[in-house]
């Protein structure tokens, strides 16, 4: 993992297409903006985890259905 220090208004580039902009730093909260092509999904980590957990639950329920038959 790369760890960087940035100030408000500074940017970080990922490859040629993704720019991370630090828009505000207030206490322990940092607001960022992300400029990326529409073909790249940008999703908050906690939402990704929720979707993953929901998918796992759905698979386990389907396996239970097959075991009952």
Describe the structure.
With 69 residues, this protein is an alpha+beta fold. It has one domain (11-68). It is built from one helix and three strands. It has a three-stranded antiparallel sheet, with no helix packed on it. One of its GO terms (cellular component) is cytosol.
The percentage helix is: 25-40%
Q: Are there runs of 5+ residues with pLDDT below 50, and where?
A: none
What structural category arises from helix and sheet content?
alpha+beta
State the helix count.
1
| Oligomeric grouping of the chains | single chain
- Proportion of beta-strand residues: 25-35%
Domains, number: 1
Order of helices and strands: EEEH
Strand order of the largest sheet: 1-2-3
Averaged pLDDT, please? Answer: 87
Distance between the termini: 47 Å
Please state the CA-atom Rg, rounded to the nearest Å: 19 Å
Topology:
Blueprint: E1 11-14, E2 18-26, E3 29-35, H1 45-68
Antiparallel strand pairs: 1-2, 2-3
Main location: cytoplasm
Subunit structure: Homodimer; the beta-strands of each monomer intercalate to form a hydrophobic core, while the alpha-helices form wings that extend away from the core.
Organism: Psychrobacillus glaciei
Characteristics of this structure?
69 residues; alpha+beta; 35% helix; 3 strands
């Amino acid at each position: 993992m790369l760890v960087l220090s940035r100030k408000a208004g500074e940017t970080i580039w990922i490859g040629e297409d993704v720019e991370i902009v630090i828009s505000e730093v207030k206490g322990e909260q940092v607001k960022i903006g992300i400029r990326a092509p529409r073909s790249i999904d940008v999703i908050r980590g906690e939402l990704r985890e929720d979707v993953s957990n929901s998918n796992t639950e759905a698979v386990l329920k389907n396996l239970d259905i097959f075991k009952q038959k």
